[in-house]
Each structure stands twice: as structure tokens, then as C-alpha cells.
Specification:
single chain; 860 residues; alpha+beta; Beta-Lactamase; Alpha-Beta Plaits; 4 domains; eight-stranded mixed barrel; five-stranded antiparallel β-sheet; binds ligand C2E; binds calcium ion
């Protein structure tokens, strides 16, 4: 059967079984199945979700590389439109459009007009069903993809129609089991209640329901009530599982098997009743008494029988089309035949409930060495939902998925699937080491870059021409990667690579050097267009990238070196472009800098700087001194309101270094975290001292780098300092800058709100220079805006600066945020500012940053 035909069948069965309307599409052929439903139904559904919604959904689905299920909003609440994207190895293969009517939400007025027989479902039902649909289709596609398997499968499929029928039948069966797996423990709890009231009414010791497992040999107590000793029952000692009813009073004569069983569990009288499901004796309900004088009366038995019937009907109701055992068996049959290892474990009870034979093959050595249960249970207890692991025992790579589901009997279990990805992994490794291409992006890799560059340099020397190498590094890519997860980072890298190769003139000369670093070589004819090319590259980053439902901006820094003018060897050209790149970062990122011989001397210091900074940071940060610059309250008598803590590095090896010269590198190396913590601690400690010395309102401002802000435990760290130093939280002000990396406004707001909930004050630093917009400050949970000093520099002669400061001040007043102006140096500037309704001034006009003893002798 052709693919579309198979998907048509899957679709139609799936729709019927799950009450959703589906249609299946792929990129090449568009719609490949006929949408499910009668004409009447289709007309009605069309009135809820018309063409345009579908088109919208599809274009979103085509763009979305990571999420597998997305929802397209509709006007009515009772209907949901979803798109399910099915990808294999990161490539989108199929899409399902699903429309579901949520039964509990359908208003009566609408219900009256519904076409007869229209399918409805529950909200939970849909999401489970779609998840499963995705899993199932993907599994199917993987199987089809795997060449040999696919051929085999195709052969089989062609061989007989019978098999397809069987497949569809299994699918149908599986669907009904999936329904049983829906989180809903009504069976167990209803049965429990029924047993409980019966036990109470007849004054019995207890009751339980026992089920025979599929293997036919072991038994399991699935519901129990009364005294708790009968939770588990050993295998092969269950005498009553014959399909008949047994009534044993305390004085009855009993066969040996029953004597043993009842003796073992200290039961003196019992009634064992079979429960039939679809004419099959699947379970027994047992009522027992430890009392030595229990004689069962006729009325007792009929009461117990009634209880049994109730439980039986609850169960039958739950299992509408297929019997539990039948479905379970079908499920098992299907799971046995999938190409991946699957097992199910009850972690609480430390029990392995099911394992398909493929899994036993995959884990052959592991099982032999560690014992089956041990290994499997240990792994099932792992809480990661997805992991790629390497198994030493098997010398294999696996994709491991772990999901918590309700098992057929209602209990919470862990479903673990293992896909053998060894071949893919080996191939990937081979590709990565041997070939020229970068596996993720498809660009050429470092090795190829070096080969090409060598050739280009030679060509340039021989033809007396010049070429350029542009070293590109994404700004703050780490934040996107850490914030959204690697898979999104990968999506971004791929998208960027794709765009780079579409820049005219460098199509075949883009390389990925690893991580978020790229190289572009411009040589020969395109060299005349260098400026153009650089501009085109920068244009790529002007627009946002759509990731995880939101727009993300990402900027780049670049360094350009010319060959053979700047250098004549591969290594040197790359190094010099890298030096220029570092300078671009240092100058504030988001720019392209050309290598310049005069910066070379300085940059050789970069390595020294790096080495010494690591050492200094290791060394309890003692070389990092905190200076203080007073902040003056200008709303009244110009009194000191506190100070901003500014770090300086007094390096024993390199001398005195200003923050502008080492903070960017410290951020780049991640060393800003220990250094920043040191500054925070020192600053808070001194402020607490000032507060105790008669200045209870002095505040200290501490700069918090974006890198620090994005650490997971940043709030905990701040709280720790507050607790240790015992500073009033409201006397600590943290200054943050708005960075492009945090265009994830939601995240930024969350982090700042958490910080604020400690009682700490938050200031937005360098306002006006970055990407901060006035809109943002309205949304952000901040208390103070610090207007950047570049606006003050031109205050007298630049209308814009004047207007800007005034406007920010007015807006801030309106929304209850205070304003601090930085960089006030002259009395002229001071006079202008003074009348603008500003709250604080910080600048050389009052004082420069000074060491702690100077600050304290002047202001304390
Ligand atoms: P910033 O946060 O904007 O700090 C204010 C800077 O402006 C300080 O430079 C200060 O000395 C300078 N300044 C103050 N008044 C005037 C003035 O009237 N005229 C002029 N021209 N400049 C003035 P500094 O101390 O060199 O610090 C530079 C930057 O380094 C800071 O800018 C801040 O972004 C960063 N920085 C300093 N200490 C730390 C720290 O502990 N952690 C972090 N993450 N960054 C820090
Ligand atoms: Ca600051
Ligand atoms: Ca500032």
C-alpha cells in the first residue's frame, strides 16, 4: 500500500477511536489524505475553522522546527485546532491538522445544531491522543526510513492486504488501550470504595481484587481493602484461579491447596469470585475473614455477588470496545514489533512490569552483567525525560525517552523507550572527523577552512591581490542556548548558516569554526564588493529570529584581517581576525572591527590578561578593589544618598586596570561571576557599616552583569549576601543594563521580579544607550532609571539630549520610577539638570569614585 493510503487508514481509525478530525499533509504533496468526516460534519467544522486558519496553522507548522504540537487559536472555546509536526532526525516529514470539539465546553445552543453523530472528545483526551499520534507516526516514519527495514516492511506491506488489516486492527486496539491509560483512576478508586463498604457492612477482615498477568503465571493484587497484609501474593500459589466461585466458611472442609493458601495469609473464611470480562476470567475478587466463626449465609453471598457485579460493570464500562486483556495483548503485540526497546516499570514498588524482546536484545550485555531489574529500575528512576546515552556494556548509543503514564490497571508507572542510534552516531562522528562539513549546519568546517585559506593566500600572493577573512562570533549566544535549550540554539545556528550562504559573493566560502563562531573568506572578484558583503551579513541580524514562539534578536561581532597584507600564513590570518573580533567585543559588541597593527601590541596582552585574571579570581578576588562614588539626592539640599560600588583591578602583575578594560573579558570568560559576587559582598558589608554608623538611609548600588543575571541561582546568591551581612534589603540597589541577550522580556521580568521580592531596589543602568525603549521601562519591574552619561556630555548644545533627559524624567515621574543622572561634571550641566525634576545625580561634579577609606572619611 502506498504511504498516503496507509496514512489514510491510520487517520480514519484514529479519528474514530479518539473523536478528533484529522487530515495529513506533507511538504511535497500538500494534503495526502482525505479529511475525515461526513459532508455535514465538514460543513459544520468549516464554519468554526475556515481556510485561513488552516493556512496560518500550516505556515506556522512549516516554520516550527522544535515544537511538535502547536495550537492555532479559534474564536470559539469549545473547539481546538492543532497542528502536529512529525520530524525524523530533525527533518519535518509530515504534518497533521487536527480539529477537536471539547464536549464539556459545548454550549447547549450549539449542541442542538450539531450534525448528528459528530465526534467530540475531552481536552485531556485530545492532547494525549495528539502526543500519541505524533509518536506513532514518527515511529512509523523511522521504520520506513531505515533502509533495510523499510524495504522489508514495504515488501511485507505489498505482500498481502491481510497484514495491513492486521496493522490497522492493532492500531485500533492500541487506541483503546491508550484511552485506558488516560489519567483517570476511577476504576481503582471505585473498586476500592465498593470493597470497603462491603467489608464494613459484613464485618469482614478485608477484600482484594487479584489479576492474572499476561504471562499467565504471575498474579497481582490491584485493589485491596481492609487490613493491609494482602498487598502482594506470591506466584504459583493461587489455588482459586479456575473460573469457578469458591465459598469457604471457617468450618468448611477444604482441599490442601486452599488450606495452604489460607493458612499462609491467616484467613479462616473466604469467598473467591471470578470476574469475567468479555467471557474471559481475568480477575478474582476475594472477600475474607480472619474470624474463626464465619459461616457464609445465602444473603451474604448475594450481597458479595452484587458488589462483584458493580465492580465488573465499572470495569466493563471502562473497557468499551476491547477487553482489557485483549487490548493489553494487542498492545504487547505492537510493542513487540516496534523497532525500539520498550519497558515499563513501577518505580515505587521497584517492579519491572513489561519489557519487549527487542529491549532484551539491545541491553543484552547490561542485563547479563548487572541483572535485569537492577539496571532497568535504576534507569527508570532517572527523572530526565529525554537523554542521549552511551552504554559502555553494549558499546552502543541510545536515545532514551522516559514518560510517566498510568498503566492499564491505573497505577503510575514509568514508560521507557530506547532507540538504538549507534549507526547514526558513528556516521556523525565519521562525518565530523573525516569530512569537510559541519554536521549541524552543513557549512564547511575548520579543516576545510584552513585548506581553502591556504589556497586563497597563495593565489593572492601570486596574483598580487588581496583577500579578507571575516571572523564572526554571535553576541551572547550562550544566553540563548542556556535560556532556551540547546535544541533551539541549534535551530538558530542552522538558520544563520543558511542565511550566510545566501549572501552574494561568499556562497561557498562560509565556514563554521565550532560553537557560535563562523568564518567568511572573501577573495578574488568579490573582494571589490567587500563593504557590500559585510553589510549584507549585518543585515541578516537586523531582523529577529522566531524561536519557541517569540522573536529573538541576536547580534554579531566580527573581526576582519586582510591577506597577505596583515599576515601570510593561515594561522596568523585567523589569529589577527580573532584579535580584531575581540576588539569588536570589547568595544561593546554588535560591530565589525578591522585588524589594525597598532592594536596587535595591546592584544597580545589579552592572553596575559586572561591568565592573570583567572589567577586573581581564584585568589579570593583580593586584587579586585571596590571603589565608591557618592550619589547625591538633588530633590532638596544635595545630600549624599549613598554610593555606587565600582570595581578596579589592582593586578600585582599588570598594574591598575579600569573596569572597561577587563569587565568584557571577565564576562567572556565567565569570571564575572566570582568577581561580581566579591564586589556585591564587599559593597553590602560597607553599606551595613555606614547604616550602623548613623546613616541608616545610605544605599549602595552594585552593578550586576547580564551574565550574572542569567545564572540560575542568582537570587539565592543575593539573598545569601543579604542574610550574611544583615544589610536592610532596601539599602541594596542592583544596577542592570538592558542587553539584547535578554530580549526574552518574559524571562527578564521574571528574574527581576524575583530579585525585587527580596526587598532589593533595581535600577536600569546606562539608559538610552542600548536597546531599551520607553515601552520597556513601563513593563519592567524597576525602581530607578540611570540616564547614561553620553546625554549629559552634550546637554548644553544638543537639543535632542535636552529633550531626552526631560522626557525620561517626566515619564518616570508619571509611572513612579526615580531618575538618576550620571556623568555630571560641570556646574553648567548641574544647573540644567537641577530643574528637570531629577532625583539623583552622580558625577565628577560632586566626586569621583574613591577608595573606601576616602569615602568614609568624607561622608561618614
Ligand atoms: P557604569 O555602571 O555606568 O558606572 C559609571 C561609570 O561612569 C564609572 O566608570 C564612573 O567612574 C564613571 N563616571 C562617574 N561620574 C562620571 C563623570 O562625571 N564623568 C565621566 N566621564 N565618567 C564618570 P568606571 O568605574 O570606569 O566603570 C565603568 C563601567 O564598568 C561601569 O559603568 C560598569 O558598567 C562597569 N563596572 C564597574 N564596576 C563593576 C562591577 O563591579 N561589576 C560589573 N558587572 N560591572 C562593573
Ligand atoms: Ca552602574
Ligand atoms: Ca551607567
Amino acid at each position: 500500500m502506498s504511504k498516503p493510503g496507509l496514512f489514510q487508514k491510520i487517520q480514519d481509525y484514529f479519528c474514530r477511536a479518539n473523536g478528533v478530525y484529522l487530515s495529513c499533509l506533507n511538504r511535497e504533496d500538500g494534503v495526502i489524505t482525505k479529511a475525515y468526516g461526513t459532508e455535514n460534519e465538514k460543513v459544520f467544522l468549516h464554519s468554526i475553522a475556515g481556510e485561513s486558519r488552516y493556512m496560518n496553522l500550516l505556515s506556522r507548522l512549516e516554520d516550527c522546527a522544535v515544537e511538535s504540537v502547536i495550537e492555532e487559536p479559534l474564536d470559539v472555546e469549545y473547539a481546538k485546532l492543532y497542528g502536529v509536526s512529525v520530524s525524523v532526525d530533525g527533518e519535518q516529514k509530515l504534518m497533521w491538522a487536527a480539529l477537536a470539539l471539547i464536549d464539556e465546553k459545548i454550549p447547549d445552543a450549539v449542541r442542538e445544531k450539531l450534525p448528528q453523530g459528530i465526534l467530540t472528545t475531552t481536552e485531556q483526551g485530545v492532547s494525549l491522543a495528539l502526543e500519541f499520534l505524533e509518536l506513532l507516526t514518527r515511529q512509523l516514519l523511522i521504520t520506513m526510513k531505515n533502509e533495510s527495514l523499510a524495504n522489508e516492511a514495504l515488501e511485507k506491506i505489498k505482500k498481502s492486504d491481510e497484514e495491513i488489516k492486521l496493522q490497522c486492527h492493532m492500531l485500533e486496539a492500541l487506541n483503546s488501550v491508550i484511552k485506558l491509560l488516560e489519567p483517570d483512576d476511577s476504576f481503582v478508586s471505585t473498586a476500592e470504595k465498593a470493597l470497603e463498604s462491603t467489608v464494613k457492612a459484613l464485618g469482614l477482615s478485608g477484600a482484594f481484587i487479584i489479576r492474572q498477568n499476561v504471562d499467565g503465571a504471575s498474579f497481582e493484587v490491584i485493589v485491596s481493602s481492609g487490613d493491609n497484609r494482602l498487598k502482594t501474593i506470591g506466584t504459583s500459589e493461587v489455588p482459586f484461579f479456575t473460573g469457578r466461585q469458591y465459598i469457604i466458611s471457617s468450618n468448611s472442609v477444604r482441599p490442601e491447596k486452599f488450606r495452604n493458601f489460607m493458612g499462609k495469609y491467616a484467613i479462616n473464611a473466604a469467598v473467591f469470585q471470578p470476574m469475567y470480562i468479555n467471557n474471559n476470567c481475568q480477575m478474582y475478587v476475594c472477600f475474607y475473614d480472619r474470624n474463626e466463626s464465619r459461616t457464609w449465609e445465602k444473603s451474604d453471598i448475594s450481597f458479595l455477588n452484587d458488589t462483584k457485579c458493580v465492580i465488573q460493570s465499572v470495569l466493563s464500562k471502562k473497557i468499551t470496545t476491547n477487553s482489557l486483556a485483549g487490548s493489553y495483548a494487542s498492545l504487547e503485540a505492537i510493542l513487540e514489533n516496534t523497532g525500539c526497546g520498550i519497558y515499563v516499570a513501577d518505580i515505587l514498588k521497584q517492579e519491572l512490569l513489561y519489557m519487549n524482546s527487542w529491549c532484551k536484545v539491545l541491553l543484552e550485555n547490561t542485563i547479563e552483567q548487572n541483572g535485569l531489574e537492577n539496571h532497568v529500575l535504576l534507569d527508570a528512576a532517572n527523572t530526565k525525560s529525554f537523554e542521549e546515552i552511551y552504554s559502555v556494556e553494549e558499546d552502543k548509543w541510545f536515545d532514551v525517552h522516559r514518560t510517566d503514564i498510568k498503566w492499564v490497571d491505573g497505577r503510575q508507572v514509568r514508560l521507557v523507550t530506547l532507540y538504538d542510534i549507534t549507526q547514526k552516531k558513528r556516521y556523525q562522528q565519521k562525518m565530523e572527523t573525516q569530512a569537510n562539513n559541519d554536521f549541524l549546519t552543513g557549512l564547511y568546517n575548520r579543516m576545510r577552512c584552513e585548506q581553502d585559506l591556504d589556497r586563497f593566500i597563495n593565489d593572492a600572493v601570486n596574483s598580487n591581490s588581496t583577500g579578507a577573512l571575516i571572523y564572526i562570533d554571535l553576541d551572547d549566544f550562550k544566553h540563548i542556548n542556556d535560556g532556551l535549550g540547546h535544541q533551539y540554539g541549534d535551530v538558530l545556528l542552522k538558520a544563520i548558516s543558511h542565511s550566510l550562504t545566501h549572501v552574494h559573493g561568499i556562497e561557498n566560502h562560509c565556514y563554521r569554526m565550532g560553537g557560535d563562531e563562523f568564518i567568511v573568506i572573501v577573495a578574488g572578484e568579490p573582494m571589490s564588493q567587500l563593504e557590500h558583503i559585510i553589510n549584507d551579513i549585518q543585515q541578516i541580524f537586523v531582523k529577529p529570529w522566531y524561536l519557541k514562539g517569540e522573536d529573538y534578536y541576536c547580534t554579531i561581532s566580527g573581526g576582519v584581517a586582510f591577506f597577505p597584507t596583515d599576515a601570510t600564513t593561515v594561522e596568523e590570518v585567523i589569529r589577527k581576525a580573532d584579535i580584531a573580533l575581540f576588539n569588536a567585543k570589547k568595544e561593546g559588541k554588535n560591530r565589525i572591527v578591522y585588524f589594525d597593527g597598532t592594536i596587535d601590541g595591546k592584544s597580545t596582552k589579552r592572553l596575559d590578561l586572561e591568565k592573570h585574571m583567572r589567577k586573581a579570581a581564584m585568589n579570593a578576588c583580593e586584587e579586585f578593589k571596590v571603589y565608591f562614588q557618592p550619589i547625591i539626592d538633588v530633590t532638596g539640599e544635595d545630600t549624599c544618598a549613598g554610593a555606587e560600588a565600582l570595581v578596579r583591578w589592582n593586578s600585582s602583575m599588570l598594574g591598575f586596570i579600569n573596569p572597561a578594560d577587563f569587565i568584557p573579558l571577565a564576562e567572556y570568560l565567565g569570571l564575572i561571576n566570582p568577581i561580581g559576587e566579591h564586589v556585591l559582598y564587599e559593597a553590602a558589608k560597607h553599606c551595613k557599616y555606614w547604616n550602623d554608623m548613623g546613616y541608616p538611609d545610605y544605599k549602595v548600588n552594585v552593578n550586576l552583569s547580564v551574565v550574572q543575571l542569567l545564572q540560575n541561582d542568582v537570587v539565592k546568591k543575593i539573598k545569601k549576601v543579604i542574610d550574611e551581612v544583615k544589610i536592610e534589603p532596601c539599602n541594596l540597589c542592583l544596577e542592570v543594563t538592558e542587553s539584547l541577550a535578554i530580549n526574552d522580556m518574559v524571562r527578564m521580568k521574571r528574574i527581576l521580579s524575583e530579585i525585587k521580592s527580596l526587598g532589593v531596589v533595581v535600577a536600569l543602568d546606562d539608559f538610552g544607550t542600548g536597546y531599551s525603549s520607553l515601552n520597556h521601562i513601563r513593563e519592567m519591574p524597576i525602581d530607578i532609571i540611570k540616564i547614561d552619561k553620553c546625554f549629559i556630555e552634550h546637554l548644553g548644545d544638543d537639543d535632542f539630549s535636552n529633550a531626552f533627559v526631560r522626557m525620561v524624567s517626566e515619564l518616570a515621574n508619571a509611572i513612579g520610577v526615580k531618575v538618576c543622572v550620571e556623568g555630571v561634571e560641570t556646574s553648567g550641566q548641574y544647573d540644567i539638570i537641577k530643574n528637570m525634576g531629577i532625583d539623583y545625580i552622580q558625577g565628577y561634579y560632586f566626586d569621583r569614585p574613591m577608595c573606601i577609606s576616602d569615602f568614609e572619611s568624607k561622608y561618614i
